[in-house]
Amino acid sequence: MKPESLGDFLAWKPPYITELIGSGILIPQGKIILFGPYKSWKSMTAIDLAFKLSSGKPWLGFKTILSTVLVIQLEIPKAAYQKRVNKYCFGNKLSPLNNLFFVTTRNLKLDKGWGVAMLEQWIAEVKPQVIIIDPIFKVVSGRLTDEFDVRQFTDRLDEIIEKHRVSFILIHHEGKDWIIEGERYDRGADAAFGSAVFGWWCDSSIELRTETEGGSIINISFPLLRLAEDEIKPVRVEVDRSNLVFTNKPKGGLNG
User: Fold this and answer.
1) Cβ–Cβ contacts within 10 Å for residue 198, how many?
2) CA distances, 133 to each of 105, 130, 195, 255 (Å)
3) Which residues pair with 220 in a beta bridge?
4) CATH class of the domain at 18-248
5) Which of 2, 65, 69, 238 is deepest in the core (most CB within 10 A)?
6) What pLDDT was estimated at residue 250?
7) What distance in Å separates the CA atoms of residue 23 and residue 151, rounded to the nearest whole number?
C-alpha cells in the first residue's frame, strides 16, 4: 500500500466482483447486520438465507452465488434448532449437505482472543465464504451501547475478514421504538440496538418487522445499502408455519 498519483489511481483496474447476494446486498468480504424486534422471524430468516446461499437459490427474489456457509447459533438450544432446520429442509426440499455447516454453542466471545481462535479453527475446517452469527449480543462480552467495546468486536471481525476472506451476516435485536406524538418514528439503520458503530461498520443493514405482533407476514426493508447502485424497495414475505416456506407477497409498490 502506497500513495498513488491521480493518473495511477484512475488507471487501476479493479478485480471483477461476483456478488454473493445481488443488487449490492452482499459482496465477498462483505458485512450485513440483519435486525428486528422480538418475534420478527430473525432466526428463521437467517436459516432461509443460509440455505439459499448454500444452494445458490434466489433469496427474496435476489440472485445468490453458491457459497459455503457456516451458521453459528448461540441462542436456541440444539434440539429445538435441529427441529427447525429439519422442518425447513423438508418444507423447502433443500439439503445442501456439503455447503452448509452449523455450530450450536452457548459461549463464544469474539472480542476475546480465545473466541477468535475457536472461530478460526472452524474456518480452517469448513473453509466458509459466509459466516452467519445469531445473535450478536451472545458474542460480545462488552457493552453493546459502548462505542469502545463495540469497536473491539468489529475490529476483530475486520481482522478475520482480511485474513480469511470471509463475509459476515450478523443477526441483531432492535432497540426500543421511538414514539413521537403517538406515531412510531422510523430510525432506519439506527433502530438496531446499541452503539452507532454497528451502522458505521456494516455494508448493508436489513430490518424485519411483522405486520401484526407474532404474525407470519414480514416487511423486510433495507435502510442501509452502501454498495447498492439503485434503491431497493421493501419486500413483503409470508412464512408458512407448517413447512417454513418463505413466499414473496407483492403489494402496492413493494417489489417481489
Assistant:
1) 24
2) 11, 10, 18, 27
3) 208, 235
4) alpha beta
5) 69
6) 79
7) 28
pLDDT 10s digits, 159-168 = 999 999 999 9
User: What pLDDT is stored for residue 256 in this prediction?
Assistant: 37
Please say whether the beta carbons of 201 and 38 come within 8 A: no
Output the nine-digit C-alpha cell for 214: 407474532
User: Residue 206 in contact with residue 59, Cβ under 8 Å?
Assistant: no
Provide φ and ψ at 204, rounded to 5°: -135, 140
- What does pTM read for this prediction? 0.89
Spans of all domains in the chain: 18-248
Q: What backbone torsions phi and psi does residue 217 show, to the nearest 5 degrees?
A: -105, 125
Predicted confidence at residue 59, as pLDDT, reads 97
Count of residues making up the chain? 256
Helix 42-55 and helix 78-92: axis angle, to 10°? Answer: 50
- The three grid cell numbers given for residue 173, joined into one nine-digit string: 435485536
Determine how many CB atoms are found less than 10 A away from the CB of residue 117.
9
